[in-house]
Amino acid sequence: MQPRADTPLARDVDRFLDHLAHGRGSSEHTVRAYSGDLEELLTTLHELGVERGEDVTPRHLRRHLARLDARELGKTTIQRKLSAARSFFKLLVDEGRIELHPATGLRQRRTPRHLPGALSIEEVETLLRAPDLTLAAGRRDRAILELMYSAGTRAAETVGLDRADIDREQGLARVRGKGRKERLAPLGSYALEALDQYLTDPERPTPDEAGAVFLNLKGGRLTTRSLQRIVEQRALEAGLRRRPTPHTLRHSFATHLLDAGADLRSVQELLGHANLVTTQIYTHVSLEQLRRVYERAHPRALD
Q1: Which pLDDT belongs to residue 259?
Q2: Tens digits of residue pLDDT in 236-253
Q3: Residues 64, 221, 250, 256: which is the catalytic one?
Q4: Is 79 helix (H, G, I), strand (E, B) or coil?
Q5: Using the 8-state DSSP alphabet, how is residue 299 labeled?
Q6: Any idea what DSSP says for residue 100?
Q7: Looking at the predicted structure, is the pLDDT value of residue 125 above 70?
Q8: Is residue 154 flagged as an active site residue?
Q9: How many other C-beta atoms lie within 10 A of the C-beta of residue 181?
Q10: Would residue 247 show up in a list of annotated catalytic residues for this protein?
Q11: Which of the following is catalytic: 15, 46, 109, 247?
C-alpha cells in the first residue's frame, strides 16, 4: 500500500476521526471501520487529483461509488462506506469549510433488513446452565450470561460495567450505551445472585482496574472479543446447534419480552434505542408467537 499523501483533505479526515472518537463517543469498532472507509475515499480522490475538501464534487464521489460497486462488495459494506463519506462531509459543511455537501443525491443502496436471530427460552436456559460452577471461570461466565440476558446489554456495555454501576438494593445496573448515553437496566434475581457469587468469589483475580466488574484471568478488564469467545465456548459446551453471539442474547431478551406481552416503547427504553424504528424489527421476530395466539384464540382461524 502506498503511503498516504499529507494533504489538507487527509488532515481533515484525521480531525473527523478524532471528533468521532472523542466528540461523539463512538465505539472503537466504528472509528476503525470509518477510518478504513475514508482511507479508501482519500485514495480515490488523490488519484483524481483532489486534495482539498472544497474541491470534492458529486462527480468525484460517483467515481468512488463506481469503484466500490466494481469490487462487488456487500450492500451493507457499501452503505457503511457511503455513510462514512456523508458524515465526514457533513462535518465540513457544519464547520463552514465547504458550502455544499458533495454527497447530496448520491445513490445509496437499500439494505435488506435481516431479522435478528433469537434463542428459544429453552435454549437460553440450557446456555445459562453450561458454566461449571466449581470453577472460578465458570462462576464468572454464569454471571456474564445471566446479566446479558437479564438486562439486554450489548457486548461493550457489559465489559464496560464498573462495580459502582451495580445497585444491589434497587436491582439496577447503570449502563453506558452508544454515544456514552446512560440508562438504568433492571436486573433479575438470578442475575443478582450470580453477580453476588462472582464479586465475592475468593478466587476472583485481583483487578488491575479497581472498578471493573468482569475480569480476565490476569485481572484485566474483559474485552469484547474475549466476551465473544466466552459465549461461543459456553454455547458449544451446552450443545446448542446454533452458535450465539453476545448480541444474540440481547435479541433473545427483546424477543422474549415482546412474546410475553411487553409493549414496544418499554422494550425500546430497556434496549437503549434512540429510535423506535430500531426496536420495531423485533415485532417481526414475534410474528410466529402472534400467529399461535391468533390460531388458538380466534374462532374462525382454523377450519
Answers
A1: 80
A2: 999 998 889 998 998 898
A3: 250
A4: helix
A5: T
A6: S
A7: yes
A8: yes
A9: 11
A10: yes
A11: 247
